[in-house]
Amino acid sequence: MAQTSRASQAWKCSGLRWAADGPELKWDGGRASPLPRGKRVAFEVAEGGGRTCVGARGNPCPVRAAVPERSTGARCEECARLDRAHSVAADTIADDPRPYHVYLAWFGPGLLKVGITAEERGSARLLEQGAICFSWLGLGPLMAARRSEELLRAALRVPDRIPYGEKRAVRSALPDSAAERAAEIADLHARALALREWPESLHREPYRPVDHVDVFGLAELPAAVGEVSGLVAGGVVSGEVVAAAGPDLHLATGRGVVVLDTRLMTGWELIPAGGDGGDRAGTGGFTVPVREFRREVPGVQEGLF
Q: Between 20 and 30 A from 193 (CA), which of 68, 129, 159, 251?
């Protein structure tokens, strides 16, 4: 009876969103769970089922297709195709009349990218990506914004994507001051605006860096010991939120700080963790797979170069 009662509490997560007051988990049906620092996150993946496709563009997957545990997309091939059929990110829309910002984002030393986002979205896209700091570069029509992206990639070799794994690896070792964190963006911003091929219809934006270290809670963040590689039926996650950046939650657990990419939660039925979840198997509340981060041993040289 208790198991049936707990199963009736199952919720389906639709991802982490950044609201005006900070990050929150969104659930099917419109519910939301704010995630302030210090909040305890504790859930169990429901037994007896698997992870299913979340559908596309607000529509459920017609066949409830199974999706891999380690996929961050949580969509089957057909739904993924439909979702990208009208996507600015996939470059499948050319006639969007809205103005678009071009931005430069910095995620850590040497990790810079160029991107675009609709002006009406403000800085939401930067928060969703986990950008440590950013500055607007230009504003104008979609195709002009696209051309500026291509220009920066070709002329200055600036990528438009940074793998999440690289972002996570540097979050606990960022420069102390906002000025230091923005230095690479300042240099790139000046070089980008100096390019002769700059699209005429794209208005140049002044350099005004915005820093997210305090918003994300990254000041004095302890180095993470590992990251959740995927959820499994019956698995437990339990920990205290010490930071949140992009889709990632940094959770303090009995084994240290573990990073949970909340995109791995979508497609699963989740229920409140049982009373023993925090001590189960002596893992500090984690009975899902965790990939441990490699630790360098001081003074040990593994190769000539």
A: 129
Structure tokens at 100: 């678009």
| For residue 301, pLDDT beyond 70 | no
How buried is 99 (Cβ within 10 angstroms: 0-12 exposed, 13-18 middle, 19+ buried)?
middle
The first and second tokens of residue 280, run together, are 């189960």
**Three-state secondary structure readout of 50-115:** CCECCCECCECCCCCCECCCCCCCCCCHHHHHHHHCCCCCCCCCCCCCCCEEEEEEEEECCEEEEE
Cα atoms in the Cβ-side hemisphere of radius 13 Å centred on 98 = 13
Q: Is 128 helix (H, G, I), strand (E, B) or coil?
A: helix
Indicate the SS3 state at residue 245: strand
How would you classify the pairing of strands 111-118 and 100-108?
antiparallel
Amino acid identity, position 94: A
Q: Compute CA 117 distance to the chain's CA centroid, rounded to the nearest angstrom.
A: 16
DSSP summary character for residue 273 = P
Assess contact for 14 and 26: CB atoms under 8 A: yes
Q: Report the 10 Å Cβ neighbour count for 105.
A: 22
For residue 27, the one-letter residue type is W
Whether 46 and 269 have beta carbons less than 8 Å apart is answered as yes
Q: How many residues are present in the chain? A: 305
Residue of 49, 54, 28, 179 whose CA lies nearest to 106: 179
d(CA 270, CA 272): 7
Q: What is the value of pTM for the model shown? A: 0.86
- Each residue of 100-124: pLDDT tens digit? 999 999 999 999 999 999 999 999 9
